[in-house]
Amino acid sequence: MRMNTPKQVTAATLARAKREGQKSVWLTAYDAAMARLAEQAGVDVLLVGDSLGMVLLGFDSTIPVTLEHMIHHAAAVVRARRRAWVVVDMPFGSYQQSPEQAFANAARLMQQTGCDAVKIEGGETMAETICFLAARGLAVVAHIGLTPQSVKQFGSYRRRGVNEAQRAQLLRDAQAVTEAGAVAVVLENIPAELARELTDMLDIPTVGIGAGIDTDGQVLVWHDLLGLSERQPPFAPPYAQLGETASQAIARWVSDVRAGRFPAEDSCA
Ligand code: KIV
Question: Residue 20 catalytic?
Answer without folding.
Answer: no
